[in-house]
Request: fold
Amino acid sequence: MLTAEENARLSRVGPGTPMGSLLRRYWYPVATSTELDREPVLPVALLGEELTLYRTERGELGLVARRCPHRGVSLAYGIPEEDGLRCPYHGWKFDATGACLEQPAEPPDSTYHERICIPAYPVQEMGGFLWAYLGPEPAPLLPRYDLFVRDHLEREIGYTRLPANWLQIMENSMDPVHLEFLHSKYFNYRLRRQGKPPIIKERRHLKIAFEVFDFGIMKRRLLEGDPEDADDWRIGHPILFPNILALGGVNGPRFEIRVPLDDTHTLVYHYFTKPVDPSTPPRAEIPVFEVPYQHEDGSLVLDTVLGQDMMAWVTPGEIADRGAEHLGTSDKGVILLRKVLNEQLAKVERGEDPMAVVRDPARNEIIAVPREENAFFTHTGGMIGADVADRLAIIRGSKEPVRVGE
Reply:
């Protein structure tokens, strides 16, 4: 268990907090390209800061503080122009550096605008996302992880906004053995309650293992009935530090990206991919859809793997009370994650780069992510050969869950 102070050190992400300082050394997706193409000015949040993302008429990107410094009106309702974003209230205009370019109601010879500047941050587009960096300069490179930059991949993006701290979501990814119960025994129980036969073969873990590498932590499992060279044990799948889970599987590799909006809310992106023939023309835009964690009546979605995980993420509360937990031998992955986080906090406090910060362009051409190909179980709701409406029906539990893997 952790003390209240230790728990706060690992979970609080706002400006000036230890974890907030560490997490600001990385890039995060704050919106999808599809969303920004449809609406060129968007309110976004990241690490306890409320921001406005925009694309100018020239196609340039900007990310600035949400509130206009004049009278506090939200710039999320601003007007994008060729060289910046204009406040809708009195027309103050700001460029991508946060500098105030114009104050129409001030005298023509006024230099007041030269003394006004708002927080602004770098933003880049990659893989269907707009990525933001809120940390100290010089900014590291935006890591070009394979699925974001490979050719001949069809992509879809699901998203879920959750009332939960980012860390309890990441700790779930370091906990292989919950598959035995949450995604097997509990899944079958839910089916029996609906008068349906079980579809999941319940198997025990023979071994679990974890390995720290340059970009994160690799998680491995060996299940009953699997040979030692099974993908889940020989390769496994990693968390890419600090907030991405990488998975393989029969439906195509994917990422889950956990974006800390503030201390008590996380935006999870489900990044589904499917290899396609090189002759396949690219889509005009990447489909984006919500993956709900609740039904319309407020009850939790429990009949899918994603829904079950999200139940485990949100029910401990907005910030899990780690002073009340009782960890066992099977929790060594969770313990390792906390140890690695504390090591990276110490690096930042010494003025060093933490793990997985990329500054070498040669290393960043494309970063191949090791992952299993034939997993025991992958989440339903992604690239499964159905249209978006069918996929959402499966996610919500109004269609038969798709069985994948064993």
Remarks:
- Confidence is low (pLDDT under 50) at residues 378-406.
- The chain has two domains: 27-133, 146-396.
